[in-house]
Specification:
The chain is built from two helices and two strands, in the order H-H-E-E. The chain has 56 residues and is α+β, with helices and mostly antiparallel strands. The protein has one domain. A two-stranded antiparallel ribbon has the order 1-2.
């Protein structure tokens, strides 16, 4: 969070990232192993999310 949009407006940028991924989750089965890299508004990698655990 020390450069780019995350440094300039951390709250606003995180809100944008979460809105984008919230809408994008419909493309995933949400099973263990699913996940993706998370990018900021400048398309720089800022993290990743993944589903862990076992499937029932």
């Amino acid at each position: 969070m020390d450069e780019g949009a995350l440094a300039e407006d951390p709250t606003g940028e995180l809100q944008r990232i979460l809105r984008y991924w919230g809408g994008n989750l419909k493309h995933y089965a949400m099973r263990p192993g699913d996940g993706s890299v998370v990018y900021d508004s400048a398309y720089r990698e800022v993290g990743r999310w993944s589903v862990e655990g076992r499937a029932d």
